[in-house]
Each structure stands twice: as C-alpha cells, then as structure tokens.
C-alpha cells in the first residue's frame, strides 16, 4: 500500500488581513470594518476566507484587525469558537497593538505580519498563507500550497484571469510559459497579456504562499527599510520577482465549483458591487453556490424561528418571489421580489420590496415602496416611504450610487425626519 500523502495545510497557518475599512462601501463601514459587512443572507464577508481555510484543512489561523474591529471580533468569537486548543487548532485575533513602537499601528499589509513575528514563531509551522479578508469566492488553498512547493518558489501569488481592458484597476503580472512571474506592476495603464492569450492579464488576488523562514527574514529586512511602504504588493513581491522566484497560481486551478459552474470571485468593495453580488444569489442558478454541502460557508447563526408569511388578501398578501428570506423574518402582507432579506427582517402590510438587500433587524412599515436599495442593519423604514422611483428626491436624503442603487441608514432617515 502506497503511503498516504501528507496535506501541506497541516503545516500552514492562514494569516488573514482584516483591518481595512473599505471606504468605497460608504456608510456600510461607518460602524464596522469591510470584512465584517454582512453578505448572502446570514454570513459576513470574512466567512469566505475563513471557510476556505477550514475546508482546505487549515486549522491554525491568525486574524489581523485594526479599523473598528469590534463587530468583526465579536462575530469570530461567536461563530468560530469550535476550534480545540488541545488539538493545536485556533483562530488568534491580532489587533494592531503597537507591539514594537507606541506610535506605530499596522503601516501596511506586510507590516501587519511583521509586527507579529514572535507570535507566528510560536506556531511551529512551515508555511504561511496570506489572505485578504474581504472577497467572495471558494478556493482550495491546499492545491495552491502544493503548487508552491512543487515549483520551488520563494512566493506563490494567487491570480485571476481578467480582460486586459479591465486589468488597470489591479496589481498585475507578466509571466513566462511556466507562469513564473517576470514583472509585477501596480495598476498599469497598459497591462501585459499572457503567453497563452494576449487579450487577458493575470491580476493579483492578494493571496500569497511563503515558507515561513524565508518570509521571516524578508520581513525583518523590510522593517528596517525607511523607504518601504511595508506592503506585499508594493514592496515585497516586486523584490522577490527581481531577486528570487515568484510563481503565479491561477485561481481556475483551485476554484471550488461544480462541473457546470463558472469560476466565481467578487470584490464587493462598492455599494453597487455589494448590491449586485447579493441580488445575483436570487437567480434561478446563481453563479455562487451557497448550497454546496461539500464546501460549506461557516458562520455564526442566531437561534431564530423559521421565516413566516402572513395575510392572504388581494392587496395584502405576504409573498416572496425569486428571493432569499432568512430565519426570523416576518413578511406580513408585503410583496417581495428579487430581494435578499437577512435575519429578523420584519415587513408590514401593503409594503413592497423589489431588488432590496435588507440587513438584519430591518423593520419596514406599512405602505413603504422600496426598489433597488441596500438597507443597513437595524433601520426602521417609516410608513409610506418611497425609494427608487425618483432619484433626485432620493439623493436629497440617501446615498444614490452611479448604478442607481440607494443606500439607506438610520442616520439618513433621522436627518430626513428632523428636516420636516
């Protein structure tokens, strides 16, 4: 019998960078960091990176936090508390704690790792997987780590294949015929093509694999460089491309999907992108399969009763068509179409929602009509409010995006009420 192949994930720690505000999400990140923003009816954005790591066999994780981290930390403590320390499993939460200098918070993505070198040393691991905590995708990291080892690389960079016309918004790379990176460019005006297709470009996903001993030495040198911005994409990766071996790993080689499902990755960093990705889940066959029992997205689930639909009169019927309605919701005489409702959303008679993404604990009063909206957590929609039919009127009180989506927060409604 052939010996069983050891999973490299058992020798790896996933270091998740979860400190960025995500200012393009506007008021959705006024009270929470971007990775803590809700997604998909019951999850948070951070759950995708953490679930990928867990499903890949990685049971040692570190989470670097900084901006308004309370919501994120509380979610992780409640939803990810099943690791067993006696089996050497854990999620360490590593806030920016000025460990090296009382004037220094995390100065960049590489610095967030560098300031925790002593903690990572204590883990006794061989490989470090650096992850961004703010993207929506499903990926088997074991395949990427194995590619890194087999290629003998100093760093392996997770890459998306994007059209050249769209690649200027990314950090991109030129590669040779073996996908060894020959140059790494940050948001170039003329992105390079690939050897197999000149019309597409490889764009960085912000996912990196290193041997820990190699990265450790690199971080120590970078901390001493006063000219460095202490960032993986700006400083460390270009230096490795120049002086060592950097390998590209194509996302399509490790994306978790069904036989007929497309490669799926989304940066939900704008209100329009956030709304679109959530509404896409209401499609008959959504591109992101949240129903996959072989690769579940783990999260914290509140103990709530099932969703409830009440009233059955011609103009007062609780219905939902092409929609996702989470537990604890009460749809009382409301018509809901192509919408996504998070936990404990309550709607009242004669209201209507179409293209609505309602975060937890939203209450919609009678006769409200809401179209193409994102409603922040805990908002109380007043009786008779109409949004989504008159963009100029909406823009007086709410955030209306270029794509025609209206973001509603309680502060905006309070200002509107106070002006009357």
Automatic annotation (TrEMBL):
Pathway: Glycan biosynthesis; glycogen biosynthesis. This is Glucose-1-phosphate adenylyltransferase. GO terms for biological process: glycogen biosynthetic process. Residues 305-408 form the Glucose-1-phosphate adenylyltransferase/Bifunctional protein GlmU-like C-terminal hexapeptide domain. Belongs to the bacterial/plant glucose-1-phosphate adenylyltransferase family. It catalyses: alpha-D-glucose 1-phosphate + ATP + H(+) = ADP-alpha-D-glucose + diphosphate. Alpha-D-glucose 1-phosphate binds at residues 106, 171, 186-187, 204.
């Amino acid at each position: 019998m052939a010996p069983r192949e050891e999973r490299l994930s058992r020798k790896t720690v996933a270091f998740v960078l979860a400190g960025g505000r995500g200012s393009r999400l506007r008021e959705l990140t006024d009270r929470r960091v971007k990775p803590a923003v809700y997604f998909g009816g019951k999850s948070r954005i951070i759950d995708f990176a953490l679930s990928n790591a867990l499903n890949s066999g990685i049971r040692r994780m570190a989470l670097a936090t900084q901006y308004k981290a309370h919501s994120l930390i509380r979610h992780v403590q409640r939803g990810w508390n099943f690791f067993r320390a006696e089996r050497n499993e854990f999620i360490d939460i590593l806030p920016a704690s000025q460990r090296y200098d009382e004037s220094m918070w995390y100065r960049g993505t590489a610095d967030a790792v560098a300031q925790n070198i002593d903690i990572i040393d204590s883990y006794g691991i061989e490989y470090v997987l650096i992850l961004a905590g703010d993207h929506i995708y499903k990926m088997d990291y074991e395949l990427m780590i194995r590619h890194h080892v087999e290629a003998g690389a100093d760093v392996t960079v997770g890459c998306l294949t994007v059209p050249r016309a769209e690649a200027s918004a990314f950090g991109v790379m030129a590669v040779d015929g073996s996908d060894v990176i020959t140059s790494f460019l940050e948001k170039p005006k003329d992105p390079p093509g690939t050897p197999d297709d000149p019309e597409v470009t490889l764009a960085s996903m912000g996912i990196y694999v290193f041997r820990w001993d190699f990265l450790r030495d690199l971080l120590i040198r970078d901390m001493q460089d006063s000219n460095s911005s202490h960032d993986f994409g700006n400083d460390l990766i270009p230096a490795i491309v120049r002086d060592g071996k950097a390998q590209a790993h194509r996302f399509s080689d490790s994306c978790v999907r069904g036989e007929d499902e497309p490669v799926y990755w989304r940066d939900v960093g704008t209100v329009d992108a956030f709304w679109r990705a959530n509404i896409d889940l209401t499609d008959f066959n959504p591109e992101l399969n949240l129903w996959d029992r072989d690769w579940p997205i783990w999260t914290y689930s509140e103990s709530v009763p099932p969703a409830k639909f009440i009233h059955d009169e011609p103009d007062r019927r609780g219905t939902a068509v092409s929609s996702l309605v989470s537990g604890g919701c009460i749809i009382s005489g409301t018509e809901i179409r192509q919408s996504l409702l998070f936990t404990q959303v309550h709607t009242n008679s004669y209201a209507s929602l179409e293209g609505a993404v309602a975060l937890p604990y939203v209450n919609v009063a009678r006769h409200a009509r809401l179209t193409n909206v994102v409603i922040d957590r805990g908002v109380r929609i007043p009786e008779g409010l109409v949004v989504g039919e008159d963009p100029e009127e909406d823009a007086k009180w709410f955030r209306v995006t270029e794509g025609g989506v209206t973001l509603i927060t309680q502060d905006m409604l309070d200002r509107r009420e106070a002006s009357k």
